[in-house]
Amino acid sequence: MITELSSAVAPAVLLAVAVLLATAAALRFTPGRRPLRDPARQPLTPVETALLRGGARGAVRTASVELYLVGSVEPAWRQALRRDSAKPPTGCSDVARAVYRVLQGRMHPRRLERSDRVREATKALARQLALDGLLLTRGRRLAAGAVLLPVFAVAPVVASAGEGTPLGPPLLLGLLADGAALLLWPWTRRTGRGAALLAQLRREEQGTRPPTEAEPARLLLHVALFGAPALRAGLPRFTAESGMLSRPPREPMERGGGGGSPEALSCGG
């Protein structure tokens, strides 16, 4: 009786698992409605590239480096950033503009990420990349996770449907389903096309000579693509003195507000 029940349940459960995995794959990898952005004709900006690679934190770090390279910010005492009010940035990204406006007095780089103004700027940029099909929208990411969660619950049912064999086909199929679900789980917001574009950009940059501060455009792109290693190699003093890769100190610091700056900024983006 139990064997007959197991034989009837296992195929139905396996079919349900297959449907769930196929649905999750469609949510994760189906191309967006817009054509893939051509890097030769419409390249990603460094801050967009950083957002694609490292999320909001990567975008804010790259925007801070962008401001430093144009002289709008400088490292301050005790691992913080301080803006130069006499040198408002020009031609900067929207995220860099938000960072500059928020930066009142001294502020640790990690705290910049928590500002409402900076968050809104990174969210707007993420929405644009989602329209380009490079990032998953929040809805698609949640839907993919919701579809995959039952797979982890169903796999033990498939295994228990075996006929008493410790390593029978149902158990192996259940383990394979778990592995497929882990591979499809939206650990990052990048879509398939976003991951492919990022990998292409990194391959193109890896074979080149490491940039220096004398090449600010290349250095900014290098930081956007490779993150912390590029910061340490290309901007060691700035990275150490600004606390770019450290945690904020526990003691209170002078913090900037999220209000507007009196200066009229002329940033592009």
Please explain how this structure is put together.
- This protein is mostly helical and 269 residues long.
- The protein is 59% helix and 4% strand.
- The chain has helices at 2-29, 46-69, 94-102, 109-112, 116-131, 138-160, 169-184, 192-206, 216-226, 228-234, 236-242, and strands spanning 73-76, 80-83, 106-107.
- Strands 1-2-3 form a three-stranded antiparallel beta sheet.
- A hairpin with a 3-residue loop joins strand 1 and strand 2.
- Helix 9 (216-226) packs antiparallel against helix 10.
- It is elongated and about 70 Å long.
- The termini are far apart.
- The relative contact order is 0.19.
Which helices and strands appear, and what pairs or packs with what?
Layout: H1 2-29, H2 46-69, E1 73-76, E2 80-83, H3 94-102, E3 106-107, H4 109-112, H5 116-131, H6 138-160, H7 169-184, H8 192-206, H9 216-226, H10 228-234, H11 236-242
Antiparallel strand pairs: 1-2, 2-3
Helix pairs in contact: 1-6, 1-7, 2-3, 2-5, 2-9, 3-5, 6-7, 9-10, 10-11
